[in-house]
Amino acid sequence: MKLDTRENVSVNAVDRSSTPLHRSLGALLGSWEVYLLLLVAAFLRLYHINTTEFDGDQADIFYMAHNAVSHGHLVATSNIASIKIFNPPAIIYALMIPAAFSANPLWGAVLTALLAIASVLLTYFLMRRYYGRLAATLASFLYATASVPIFYSRFMWNQNMLLFFVPLLIWFLYRGAVARRPFWLFPSVVLIGLLVQFHASSIVLVAPLLVALVLAPRRTVRWYDLVLSVLGILAIYAPYIVWLFQTHFQDIFIVLHTAKGKTLIDAQALLFYLQFLGPLPAPYTNKLSILSPYMTALAWLQPLVVLLVIAGAVLAAVLAMKSRRSEAEINTRRGFITGIGRWWHDLRQSPLRCGLLILLIWQIVPLLYLTRHDIVLHLHYFIMFMPGPFMLAGFFLARTFDWLHARLTGVQAARIAFLTISSLLVIAQFLIASGYVYDASHGRYIDTAWAGQYYNDLASLQNAMRQADQLAQQRHLNHVYVSADLGTQVSFLYLAGQMKTPTTVVDDSCLVLPGTQSGAAVLLTAPHSRRLDLVTAYAHAARVATAPHPGGPSFNLYVLQPGPLAAQSHDNFMQELKFMDLKSFNNGQRNVLASRWQMLRSAPAGYHTSYNYTFHNGVAGTGVTPASHSCSVSALRAGDQLIVPMGDPAQPPTKMQVTAYATLPTILSYNFLGAIPLQLDTFQRYDTPKQMLRSQSGLDYIPVSFAKKS
């Protein structure tokens, strides 16, 4: 391998830009390290990709993509950001590509992984074109085996798209400022707009864009670049602009007024930045990890990578900022001004220095900006720095080898030792990354530690739903009920649409039983379901199977028998629900009171649709505010029975009120040019007017009684 990074060959960046395409491709295809790099990057990002995370965010964005493709809609927003604004829709349009071919969310994760693999190759191509083969090999292998970027490569999420589109932006900035080629400004501006859609923090990448604009020769910027840039931004933001007008720019108002807390200046941003240079932090590396016994022995790895990045940054700064002014020029004011002008002229004439300056601005300015923050920072905010640190490390290592080669021509041992140490560094990173991939794909973790509620992988969710579907078909049962908690609700809602057997997803604050006319049904419960007490103590259910859930308790499969009939009340509700009875049972820890209701109407499942009931139970003459309990289901079936826990049977209600309403998706209608009707999906949902149920006697409550056991 040969490295061309010395100042006297830096102009080769311009010469190489005019090299025939077939010759450049031939050189790349003839490089053995490209194939090894592709193999390593693909293995670490695609191995057992079917175990990809599939929690609320992943289900939300793929659900929107699949719905938009199925109905031919445009999309105005994606999901909700942590600051409670609706994200722009770029991630949905990206996922519409795999959703157009398959409803299986696996292909959304595959797309994310493939783009991450492409980012590794893009890093190699960028470094090789401008800094030589050795720098390209070292930087790209360090990046390909880094654990934290691999973590974000293995599941679909808005900001994970930055892994590919940020280095693509840097490629175009180098095209203008280093290779001195036209057609770079327009794609760079559009990419900035796209990156902001994936994560708003990417707006700080305007800094390297402005530096490139100043450094690039004027001949590389055409007047139509500005026109195309404006049109490109309008095109990718057009649906979101419609949304902003419809909501009176509420999201913009929220963004401008987000900073309500105290502004902090601390090292949190630097700590997150450094985490990208080492193994995954706790809890991803835990006592169950296959790497746990070896982490102490590998503790040297992160400090070494950090030192290489710092050394690369210092070297890049020295090379980018060095001046050729004479001592006499520095000692006079006129000479100083002349020297500054000469320094600026020399900087713009040196492609090497221009490229290094862009690289430094990309890494330093956003980091300084995030050091002063008034919001809570998260690790994923720092994806936008990738693969910059590894480019700096690779540049430093290659430059050091070049120095050894020039000064120790006859000493092979030094160069061999240098390459051996570099190889061991990459191998150590590969082993750590492989350990994480093995842990994630084989359940060597604690599910409640890996995610907000608890971690769910796609393979186990699909397997549980598939088992429920097969059980219903084998036993000729006509319905499947899924009891979902906060950790599984959105995932189950999407996967229920792929079932052959009609399926109802029920919030685990309550339980649905089949009616007497419907026959038995299958019930699937979430691993951490709160309603196992109702299933085992209240319902006539037999557990017939379990489905594995890596990292935690299993999914449970039951066959539900129809709920028993109840004596008719003398006064009952006439719409939606009919009261059946109150019953107490022991859940293994205490006695619990539950009410039973019969559904009076049917309603189909739909996209982002739920049917909700709020039960208010009051005790006459006590003056106590009625307690309320809510229940949400994805579909209604007349005759089914709804079981709702009501609290302590020692103080049973004497009357009950019920409020019913539905939650539906917000779909914007817009006439383009006044002639083309468009439907735009959003993540926003709205509640229909709440209906207080009326009894036969016209009251908004019904009297109930509970016969205590003697």
**Beta-strand share of residues:** 15-25%
Number of domains: 3
Percent helix among the residues? Answer: 40-55%
Distance between the termini: 89 Å
Runs with pLDDT <50, length 5+? 1-15
Radius of gyration: 31 Å
GO biological process, one term: lipopolysaccharide biosynthetic process
Subcellular location: Cell membrane
Protein name: Glycosyltransferase RgtA/B/C/D-like domain-containing protein
Domain Glycosyltransferase RgtA/B/C/D-like: 88-243
Descriptive report:
It is a multi-pass membrane protein. One of its GO terms (biological process) is lipopolysaccharide biosynthetic process. The chain is of the alpha+beta class. The protein folds into three domains: 31-442, no CATH class; 458-563; 565-710, no CATH class. The chain contains 24 helices and 18 strands. Strands 1, 12, 13, 15, 16, 17 and 18 form a seven-stranded mixed sheet that branches. Strand 4 (480-484), helix 23 and strand 5 (503-507) form a beta-alpha-beta unit. The longest helix has 31 residues, at 412-442. Mean pLDDT is 88; it is low at 1-15.
